[in-house]
Specification:
The chain has helices spanning 3-21, 26-40, 45-52, 55-72, 75-87, 91-105, 111-129, 134-137, 139-147, 156-167, 179-200, 235-241, 266-271, 286-296, 327-330, 364-372, 392-402, 412-425, 437-459, 461-473, 478-495, 498-515, 520-532, 542-551, 555-580, and strands at residues 217-223, 246-251, 256-258, 279-285, 305-310, 334-339, 357-362. By secondary structure, the chain is α+β, with helices and mostly antiparallel strands. It has two domains: 3-207 and 397-580, no CATH class; 211-372, Alpha-Beta Plaits (2-Layer Sandwich), CATH 3.30.70. The strands form two sheets. The protein has a four-stranded antiparallel sheet. It has a three-stranded antiparallel sheet with strand order 5-7-6. Helix 5 (75-87) packs antiparallel against helix 6 (91-105). The radius of gyration is 26 Å and the shape is globular. The two termini are 33 Å apart.
């Protein structure tokens, strides 16, 4: 057993473990693993160049530029404006058009930007229609995942699976090769959501449907000034006056009294007498922070508003400390409180994450300006300004170029490059940021996983795993092996990301099938569709996490709807795949 083989297996295991722990962003774990393999020599120069020039990476980059053009030129906002106008006249038809747009749009756009663009539109339509947000917001996650299976470019997962076939010397997937199966699964999923969704969906308004949630506990800092009536007051007396408020830290210039570090020191905080210059780290309901801001307000003529915003996957704030946002300097907006997406945050050390909620106070024009920049989303979401509407014809032309493989004129990589050139030469994307952060993270994930897959194949690790499984798999009927593949893939996607699940399973399934005399293609399709059915957990995919945060859903809400939907998709695939692709290899 060579050193490259051992290292490839070890790095792959550590990368997948990091993804499963949810402590490391998937793209960072994948890129770190690729870097280790490159530095160690387990991924050689030809292998690296093969990854960089892989058709999958070229296709996804080109389609992301097309998606950026659709957004930058205002075509997507134009669609949303038409829906808003239609709600008053034909509300049912407006909702059908919105959901159809998410389903079909996900066949062209990546899942994450599709959900991020659709979520504010769902909230706005729900408020305009006078209905609860929760029952109508959750379906967009499921529809985006189903729509991603309608074409090869609908999801990065599809391209990773296709690239696995190419690395094995087999032909990759065509643009619409599995579209019929995708339509079947989409029909089954939409039918299930239409018939049983109203009974299974959670009820009530999402927090995003109101300006802020009054009782949401938020972390914040309260500075004790020289004229503050708290000077000389015992902390215990402060707590007695303000029910529902907890003191986590009291920071002074000379030292820091912390109740969070040692439980036994809570009494020290309670007995402490406050003095000017103290900075109290408090956890209190949002309404309390707003009351305190009202007391501090000097200019009574001003009419600031308070709003709760949440951090989307494409936010430029991600990874920045709270002080680094500089909202007070740029927009004159005060950050009153923070509700962290994961665990209890430390005010001074916290770095912004996807799903974080910030309670902001400022003038309405400045808040709308902030929300229009998409650094944060909220109930005051407005149409984005600065669209290059005069370049919409460029976006349409790029879409037409991307569709040329459907008539056999160009190959998929050629069409992706042509579409990208049209977008860039036509000026249909932002000069300062052609691709947003989710797109860059997706590219990083795809590149990292392809590099790890190349190292596993080149070192012989994949062949070793396939040989180890051949004995037990050879005694299983092909149709049963297909069902087991679907089951393993759909369970793995709830622990790993769907891209990681495909990158892990597809390279193993292909040589295993070749050794057993089976055609790998239907089994890779099973891996693809099983991994795409990431419906049962808010942690399974970043779009699930995003909607879970902005909608205020519980884990059980995803289980109640996602598990039967996952079962329907897997059963449909188990029935249809052998009828669309023969399981036995051609003689």
């Amino acid at each position: 057993m060579s050193a490259a083989l051992v290292l490839s297996l070890l790095v792959a295991a550590l990368v997948f473990a990091a993804m499963a722990s949810d402590r490391v962003a998937p793209h960072r774990a994948a890129l770190a693993g690729a870097a280790v393999l490159l530095l160690s020599g387990a991924l050689d120069g030809p292998g690296l160049m093969g990854v960089i020039g892989s058709p999958g990476l070229i296709i996804i980059t080109g389609m992301m530029l097309v998606a950026a053009a659709l957004e930058h030129t205002g075509l997507i906002d134009r669609f949303v404006r038409r829906l808003k106008a239609q709600v008053g006249r034909q509300p049912r038809r407006a909702w059908v058009h919105l959901y159809a747009g998410v389903l079909l749009g996900s066949a062209v756009l990546a899942n994450t930007p599709m959900v991020v663009l659709a979520a504010p539109a769902v909230v706005a339509l729900a408020r305009q229609s006078g209905i609860s947000v929760k029952p109508v917001l959750l379906p967009i996650v499921f529809l985006a995942s189903l729509g991603g299976c309608l074409s090869l470019v609908g999801s990065s997962v599809n391209l990773i699976a296709s690239e696995s076939l190419l690395q094995a010397g087999l032909g990759g997937f065509g643009l619409f090769e599995f579209s019929l199966l995708g339509l079947l699964c989409a029909a089954g999923g939409v039918g299930f959501l239409a018939l049983f969704g109203p009974r299974l969906m959670p009820i009530g308004d999402a927090p995003s449907a109101q300006l802020y949630e009054p009782e949401r506990l938020m972390l914040g800092e309260h500075a004790v000034t020289a004229g503050d009536p708290l000077v000389g007051t015992a902390a215990l007396e402060f707590l007695q006056r303000h029910a529902g408020v907890s003191i986590l830290d009291c920071r002074r210039e000379a030292d820091t009294q912390s109740a969070a570090d040692e439980p036994g020191r809570i009494s020290l905080i309670a007995d402490l007498r406050l003095r000017a210059g103290d900075r109290l780290l408090l956890e209190a309901p949002a309404r309390w922070w707003i009351e305190q801001a009202d007391l501090r307000q000097v200019d009574r003529a001003a009419a600031p508003i308070d709003v709760e915003v949440w951090v989307p996957p494409q936010s430029r704030w991600l990874g920045l400390p709270l002080a680094g946002l500089r909202l007070d300097r740029i927009h004159g907006i005060e950050v009153l409180g923070l509700s962290a997406a994961q665990g209890r945050a430390h005010w001074a050390k916290h770095r912004v994450q996807i799903g974080d909620r910030l309670l902001l106070r400022g003038s309405r024009p400045e808040l709308e300006r902030l929300l229009a920049s998409e650094a944060a989303l909220g109930p005051l979401q407005v149409e984005r300004a600065g669209h290059a509407t005069h370049r919409q014809w460029v976006a349409w032309l790029a879409l037409a170029a991307a569709a040329l493989p459907a008539i056999g004129w160009l190959s998929l990589p050629q069409a992706a490059v042509l579409a990208a050139l049209i977008v860039m030469l036509g000026g249909a994307i932002s000069r300062t940021q052609p691709l947003n952060r989710p797109s860059l993270r997706t590219l990083g994930l795809v590149f990292g996983m392809l590099a790890i897959g190349e190292a596993l194949v080149g070192s012989g690790a994949v062949g070793l795993l396939a040989d180890a499984l051949e004995g037990s798999a050879g005694r299983v009927e092909p149709w049963l092996l297909l069902g087991l593949t679907l089951l393993i893939a759909t369970l793995a996607t709830e622990v790993l990301t769907n891209g990681a699940a495909v990158a892990l399973l597809a390279p193993v399934v292909i040589p295993l099938c070749l050794h057993l005399g089976l055609d790998p293609r239907p089994f890779v399709v099973a891996v693809l569709f099983g991994a795409s059915a990431s419906f049962a957990s808010p942690l399974a995919y970043q779009t699930n996490t995003y909607v879970h945060q902005i909608g205020g859903y519980r884990f059980a809400d995803f289980l109640r709807v996602g598990v039967p939907l996952k079962l329907i998709v897997c059963l449909l695939c188990w029935y249809a795949i052998p009828r669309m692709w023969p399981l036995q290899a051609a003689a």
